[in-house]
Amino acid sequence: MFREKELIIANTIYTHPQAAVTQETTFSFSCRTETEIQAYEEAVHKSWSVYSTKLDLVKQQTREDAELQMVQHYVLIGWPNYAVKVPDKILLNYLPLDQTLWESSLKKQRDVYCQFLKELIIQPGITKADLGQSREDVTMEDHPLNPNPDSRWNTYFKDNEILLQIDKDVRRLYPDMAFFQRPTEYPCQLILDPQNDYETLRRRIEQTTLKAQTVNRNRSGVTNVSSPGKALNLYPSNEYEVLPNGSEAHWEVVERILFIYAKLNPGIAYVQGMNEIVGPIYYTFATDPNSQWKEHAEADTFFCFTNLMSENRDNFIKSLDDSQCGITYKMESVYSMLKDKDLELYLKLEEQNIKPQYFTFRWLTLLLSQEFLLPDVIRIWDTLFSDEGRFNFLILVCCAMLILIRENLLAGDFTVNMRFLQDYPISDVHTILTKAKELQDNS
Fold first, then answer.
1. Which of 25, 264, 267, 281 has the lowest tally of Cβ within 10 angstroms?
2. Given this model, what pLDDT does residue 37 score?
3. Superfamily name and number for 318-441
4. pLDDT in tens, 50-105
5. Angle at the Cα of 29 (from 27 to 34), degrees rounded to 5?
6. What whole-number distance in Å separates Cα of residue 136 and Cα of residue 3?
7. 307 CB burial (10 A radius; 0-12, 13-18, 19+)
8. What is the pLDDT of residues 153-170, one digit of tens each?
9. SS3 state at 19
10. pLDDT tens digits for range 399-415
11. Given a cut of 70, is residue 239 above it in pLDDT?
12. Which stretches make up the Rab-GAP TBC domain (predicted)?
């Protein structure tokens, strides 16, 4: 768990991303008015909402600690570019609290990710012909038609099934935004460099969909053979634009992150919805104003996503649904809290047989990423990640969302209320977070 001072700094930085300053300004309390100091204290109190009971501690430490004086300074005049996106990496346990260790830690992690690319994105059978290497992957014992479950080729074909699902999901990631369809400024040269034989996932998808065939037998016994790409309409012409060689879209980077995660975590592999979790993290890092951070958005996103999934992965494991750490328990927790906070509304939903799994499954599993616009999702996640209870606060947020539309729900019938819950009408996330904090304080 983070020390209190680091939490104050991290939370305040990302909650108040004012216009970046171009010059450092000397700051001290002696040059600030009492009104300015009070305004800062209120700002910290507001941003550090999950720890409001410790406001006196904040005030005391602010006056005694140089780093907290720096935070006050930036709250008043604006944050430098380098500071805006760093706290997410701290709160997701990617960066150590000791800033002197950042450079070595980042280099180590990024080198590890580079190794993952080399080991996991290369198709079995790809060799460098100019080096005269033999096709050691195709032998009498192991070949593409080998039915042995331990066969490397059998693993490769199973990986293709996962890759096709990932590909289908990431192509439609945040369709209301053009960002993920645009080319990244920093394509992966290890993969795209024409001097090597590393295969892009794009080419692997194309080869799989063009060479494989789908066999369908109708009720009359007639067999039809067709390309799965055509049969399933995997790639409608208006869904994405094919980029030239040497370029790749942001969704392709996300696809690579998810594929590597699936390979390294075979117990869970890939489950639909993970694309909605990794998307906001990648977007945050890939739009960092600091090019040095932006350049390594892929590797940084992978590790932050992996760390987040280590806390959230039980939601994606069906065998754990009914356990205390599973999604069913969490969905029921929303109604248990609602029963405690607003009995009338709870009884209304029970009377209409509106079960929590009808809407909270998506809310909780995807961390509300499909309920709000991406900037609002990031704002909600900032609060969740900085909360000491993290996903317990998510339960509070879901309960707050219900209470904020209680008048609509009390007046509506089943159909109307399901429409409200499936398409949440309030877009002001600050109102929702404030209500969640209020519920927390009254617990």
1. 267
2. 53
3. Ypt/Rab-GAP domain of gyp1p, domain 3 (1.10.472.80)
4. 333 344 444 454 455 554 554 444 433 333 433 445 567 877 888 887 778 889 99
5. 130
6. 53
7. middle
8. 667 778 888 999 999 999
9. coil
10. 999 999 999 999 999 99
11. no
12. 143-388
Q: How many other CB atoms are found less than 10 A from the CB of residue 397?
A: 26
- Which tokens belong to 163? 């890759």
State the alpha helices, DSSP H only, in 232-390. Answer: 250-264, 274-286, 291-294, 297-312, 327-341, 343-351, 360-365, 374-386
**Please, what's the largest Cα pairwise distance for the chain?**
89
Classified as helix, coil or strand, 345 is helix
Residues 6+ away with beta carbon under 8 Å from 378: 280, 283, 284
Contact (CB, 8 A) for 169 and 366: no
Residues 325-337 pLDDT 10s: 789 999 999 999 9
- Give the residue extent of every domain in the chain: 4-83, 101-316, 318-441
Which of 258, 298, 304 is closest to 92 using CA atoms? 304
pLDDT at 22 over 70: no
Q: How far apart, in whole angstroms, are the C-alpha atoms of residue 91 and residue 8?
A: 12
- Rounded CA Rg of the chain: 25
Distances (CA, A) of 14 to 41, 88, 257, 382, 383: 16, 8, 25, 7, 10
Identify the bridge partners of residue 215 per DSSP, sorted by sequence position. Answer: 225
Instruction: Determine the angle formed by the axes of helices 4-15 and 374-386, rounding to 10 degrees.
Output: 170
| Segment 371-382 mean pLDDT | 91
Query: Looking at the DSSP assignment, which residues form a beta bridge with residue 249?
Result: 183
Q: Which residue matches tokens 């990631």? A: 173
Question: What would the two tokens of residue 222 be?
Answer: 């007639």
- For residues 358-371, give the mean pLDDT: 95
